[in-house]
Design goal:
With 493 residues, the protein is an alpha+beta fold. Helix content is 41%, strand content 13%. GO terms for molecular function: histone H4K20 methyltransferase activity; zinc ion binding.
Length: 493
């Protein structure tokens, strides 16, 4: 029924030449309900399409600090700059071993009791490589099979010779290479979308043959069905990026447009930019919140001998995290506010790394939830300029309304001071400037009071207690019992 309704409403919009706004809005509302209602079943949120677009709304009241929902990505890839940190290529679980962290030399230098602490409390890590290419590592047979089913059957360098060049480029860990790439997320994030589409079409063709079809040619419907999960992710960006990254476009086309079975995906400039901006606009970074290192810190506390391992850890420091970029179906529906009422955290979701969306303050039922796309500590002018370039909107949130751009203009009335003079700023937040105490009082009552007292928010944080704090507690425990003639090692940077 919803699909039939969408068809007629789309026709109504076309017949009216886009002038019938009610039909267009109703079409989007029905489509949004069809796409997202199955994803929000059992959750205290709903996705609605209103006058200014899609958004997530609370179905019940939330208190500050309450977890609203948790989510795993529909597709993800490890960032190129963190590839040296071992992790499961499919689920993002950390594969850090004790040898990876301490190193053979340090482990050999430890006393037997210290080595026993490491052996006893460092979690067992299972590492399984792709048996064909040995270029992907997984935490389990299940993840290996899931990756092969979803995308790796298309991207495996053993089966796809053109993919060798793509893997080699990603292994370099370069964020900006003229002609190829310019983004913090990995090219593999985009490649896995095309690979997943091809893999889905292959399965559909195989099923059709088993059902009696007399051709191996995929239908338009098969391609549409395979692409459907990724239509949820809105893309916006400046045209012409594909021309700048022309070498990567050519490489991707060689990777996905060369299969002997004829199920190929042509990657031209338009297709490349569409998928690139889908990932650029919706990609959320996340990491394993329960790494072997963190679990080791938690477990070793119960052993009195653990205090002797702490100096080694203090010298080595925290291990580099494996950071992934993922597309999350519900998270992508969150709109932005510099005065965001929810925050995104690394989170364990049913035993797998993912994200959690947590309320920062009280949220009433029916209220739209807002995340932030940027570190809100950034000055207002820079925030708004970046958001306009990246997402094509001029932020009008409460924080942007009641902060200013500098002492050269009153943040309330907009008047400018005499040449060579400047207005005084808010003594508390130092982010708003006023020409008179009257303007300051008016702005305070209208909304600056709320903004002035609201803490700024990072784009991402961890749901776990910070690792640095845990290791400091262990270090303090050790130094209290340490003989006075031994010196305290310097704190690692």
């Amino acid at each position: 029924m919803p699909v039939l309704a969408e068809t007629w409403l789309r026709k109504a919009t076309q017949v009216s030449d886009g002038q019938h706004s009610e039909a267009a809005l109703l079409f989007q509302q029905i489509r949004t309900k069809r796409l997202y209602e199955p994803l929000t079943t059992g959750l205290p949120i709903e996705v609605k399409f209103e006058e200014y677009g899609r958004g997530i709304f609370a179905k019940e009241d939330f208190s500050g600090g309450q977890m609203v929902w948790r989510e795993v990505p529909i597709i993800s890839a490890q960032t190129s700059i963190s590839l040296k940190a071992p992790a499961c290529s499919q689920c993002a679980r950390s594969l850090l071993t004790a040898i990876d962290y301490f190193g053979d030399d340090v482990l050999r230098s430890m006393k037997p009791a210290e080595r026993r602490v490491v052996a006893k409390y460092w979690p067992q890590v299972s590492i399984i490589e792709c048996p064909k290419c040995q270029r992907e590592k997984y935490c389990s047979e299940d993840c290996l099979k899931a990756a092969w089913y979803q995308h790796h059957q298309v991207l495996c360098p053993k089966k796809n010779k053109a993919a060798v060049e793509l893997y080699d480029f990603c292994d370099k860990g370069e964020l900006c290479t003229e002609g190829y790439w310019s983004a913090p997320f990995s090219p593999m994030s985009v490649a896995r979308i095309w690979a997943a589409v091809i893999a889905d079409v292959r399965r559909a063709v195989k099923q059709a043959r088993e059902d009696g079809a007399d051709t191996d040619e995929p239908t338009v419907e098969m391609w549409a069905h395979a692409k459907a999960p990724y239509r949820r992710f809105i893309a916006y960006g400046k045209a012409g990026h594909a021309e700048w990254a022309h070498k990567m476009v050519d490489l991707m086309n060689r990777v996905f447009n060369n299969f002997p079975d004829g199920i190929n995906y042509k990657i031209d400039n338009r297709e490349f930019e569409g998928r690139y901006y889908q990932v650029a606009c919706n990609c959320q970074s996340f990491s394993d919140p329960l790494t072997p290192y963190r679990r080791f810190l938690s477990r070793m506390k119960v052993d009195s001998n653990s205090k002797h391992v702490v100096p080694y850890m203090a010298s080595i420091g925290e291990p580099k995290e494996a950071v992934f970029g993922g597309l999350f179906a519900l998270h992508a529906c969150l709109n932005h506010s510099c005065d965001n009422d929810v925050e995104i955290l690394d989170c364990d979701v049913g035993g797998f790394p993912g994200i959690g969306v947590r309320a920062r303050r009280k949220i009433a039922a029916g209220q739209e939830l807002f995340s932030t796309y940027i570190d809100t500590r950034t000055p207002r002018a820079e925030r708004r300029a970046w958001l306009f370039r990246a997402y094509n909107f001029w932020c009008q949130c409460r924080r942007c309304q009641f902060e200013g751009d500098g002492p050269e203009e009153c943040s309330h009335c907009g008047i400018k001071p005499e040449q060579g003079k400047y207005f005084l700023g808010c003594a508390n937040c130092k982010r708003a400037w006023y020409c008179t105490p009257k303007c300051q009082k008016i702005a305070w009552k209208k909304g600056h009071k709320r903004i002035c007292k609201t803490k700024h928010s990072d784009v991402v944080s961890s749901v776990e207690e910070p690792v640095r704090e845990q290791i400091r507690k262990l270090a303090d425990l050790f130094y209290k019992e340490m003989p006075k003639h031994l010196s305290k090692p310097s704190e690692s940077k």
